[in-house]
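Shipment paperwork, digital attachment
Item: protein structure file
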Amino acid sequence: MKKLLTLAVVLLVSLALAACNSDSSGLKVVKQFSAEDMGSWTGSITPDETAFGTATYNAEGDFTVIRVGEESWGGVQSPTLTLDLKEQTYVALQVKEVNDAFKWTVKFVPTNPIEGHEWGLYVFEDNGMKWNKYTMVDLNMQFGQDIIDAYDGKIEGVFWIWAAGAADANVEVLSFTIFQGDI
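Attachment content:
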């Protein structure tokens, strides 16, 4: 019993010291969108304005269903935000469920794109993750230094989350988070 009590005290002291540590390394949440937040996202606005989609929040299950638009493709877009790629930046999407016949993708679409980026930059595509799994990507690595330099390290724009694969394609999502820092 004394060993268990001693172990518990050591664990509590360790946790207290870790919590008080002023070290600023590690990942920090820059922006997080809950399922409810994503439920208010608007349909994607493409350069030719042909693809839209919808987002519907399900309060009972606390998830949002993103559906393709009338054109049988598309999805929704985040509010406009600025990515500071001078710092190590990561994006994570938590997928609740996606039917095996459907797929999803995430892109970042710059507000003032350079030539060739009007339809956005791929962040990640469906990788089979579902059932409350996270998919995370290192944006600095995904975009590459040439793209980061082309935008002087900061890019303003929107994220698109799209469903694909059929006229009724959809993906259920739980959260979307942007992190910065070191892993």
